[in-house]
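Retry 2 of 3 after timeout on previous attempt. Resubmitting structure tokens to design endpoint.
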């Protein structure tokens, strides 16, 4: 009787495992970035195919509603995966283009897992809510004891402490701006802590306000050619002196 009871328990357990192993989960991509190249297939890469980013067996199906789906092989347990366009240079990223953690699901918990691709590793993000500005060059006569800060429509043109760019070990200055609500474009100038000390062109003339758009790139590199309150660092001038060394002898003296 005891062995019959144990046999039934083992049989029941085997049935449960068998039923669990038959579970198939569908991964569904409901939306992809607007700048995704047309006609490129999507692939599922995960711990079930040795993380092969372009495995033809794991190519997703494009549906009539523009979604992509793939039915995972039967099994049970946890699954980790990411979506690619064929290799790891085209793997999915977060809304600002940065690497994301592996996606995960447990077979048997959900029949269909719906996801959205925010961005691709090889393409500029379109909806990033922040923007990093990197200043790679400053005029030689820039005072070393003055802050480099931004004045723009995002801070009421006040280059205060919240707008100061931070200097890294390589000498570059940078700052990350969060996207204000309902703002697609930022207008600004680079200053030395005051609008009277704002950037200029190479001749020392006041330059037009800079304009950058959120969503096109997550990082933009800039350079300052001069300052309005300091001499041109290269000795350049926007004035040209013209000297006439000879005139005809019959030129009227008072003309």
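Retry 2 succeeded. Sequence:
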């Amino acid at each position: 009787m005891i062995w019959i009871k144990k046999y039934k328990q083992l049989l029941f357990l085997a049935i449960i495992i068998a039923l669990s192993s038959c579970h198939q989960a569908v991964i569904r991509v409901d939306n992809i970035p607007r700048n995704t190249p047309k006609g490129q297939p999507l692939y599922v890469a995960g711990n079930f195919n040795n993380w092969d980013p372009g495995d033809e067996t794991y190519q997703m199906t494009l549906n009539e509603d523009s979604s992509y789906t793939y039915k995972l092989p039967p099994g049970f347990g946890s699954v980790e995966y990411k979506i690619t366009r064929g290799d790891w240079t085209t793997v999915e990223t977060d809304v600002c283009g940065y690497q994301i953690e592996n996606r995960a699901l447990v077979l048997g918990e959900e029949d269909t897992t719906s996801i959205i691709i925010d961005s691709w590793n090889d393409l500029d993000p379109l909806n990033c809510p922040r923007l990093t500005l990197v200043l790679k060059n400053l005029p030689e006569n820039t005072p070393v004891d003055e802050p480099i800060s931004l004045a723009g429509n995002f801070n009421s043109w006040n280059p205060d402490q919240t707008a100061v760019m931070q200097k890294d070990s390589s000498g570059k200055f940078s700052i990350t701006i969060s996207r204000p609500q309902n703002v697609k474009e930022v207008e600004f100038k680079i200053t030395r802590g005051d609008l009277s000390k704002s950037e200029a062109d190479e001749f020392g003339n006041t330059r037009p306000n800079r304009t950058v758009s959120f969503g096109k790139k997550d990082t933009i590199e800039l350079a300052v050619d001069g300052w309005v309150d300091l001499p041109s660092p290269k000795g350049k001038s926007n004035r040209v002196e013209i000297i006439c060394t000879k005139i005809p002898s019959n030129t009227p003296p008072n003309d």
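Attempt log closed. The CA atoms of residues 5 and 11 lie 10 Å apart.
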